[in-house]
Every structure is written in structure tokens, then in C-alpha cells.
Amino acid sequence: MKNYHATVTVTLRKAILDVQGKTVESALHSLHMPQLGNVRIGKHIELSVQAPDADTAREVVREACDKLLTNPVMEDYAVNITEEGAA
After folding, report:
1. 2-83 has which fold?
2. Which residues contact 72 (CB under 8 A, 6 or more apart)?
3. Helix, strand, or coil (residue 37)
4. I want to staple 69 with a disulfide (CB 3.0 to 4.6 A). Which of 40, 65, 85, 86 is the partner?
5. What is the arrangement of strands in the sheet containing 2-12, beginning at the earlier edge strand?
């Protein structure tokens, strides 16, 4: 088994109003930064995974996302897998 490092980026689906993102966007505008917009706030999750290969590690993490780490009704996610110790 190899060791992999997984990062999961979770965001609200585009159709869901991101109240926290809107609040931050408003605050940025009040700080005279009107060029910043469309703020979306999400989650960043890091995991260690033991698996025979990167594809299997990715599938294990996707299963964890679907079953526990994300709300599939409201959230989208992206998984990135890197082998630990790889340069």
C-alpha cells in the first residue's frame, strides 16, 4: 500500500445563495475594493489515504465525500490526490 495525500475543496452549488460569501463581498466593497466580486466561501479538507494506487485513493475519498464529508444536495467538491513523499 502507498500513502497518498488528498485535498478536498467543497463549495456551495452555484444555484445556492452563499450568504457568507455575499457578506464578505460587501465588506470588501466597504473597504474600497470594488474590483473584487463573486465571493464564494467553501471548505478545505485534507486526508491521508492508504491505497494501492492513486485511482483507488481517489475513489475512497469520493466515497467519504458522498457519505459524510459533503452535502450532495447543496455542495460540489473537487478531489486532488498526490503521493506522499513524491517531489
Report:
1. Mth169; Chain: A , (3.30.1280)
2. 66
3. coil
4. 65
5. 42-51, 2-12, 75-83
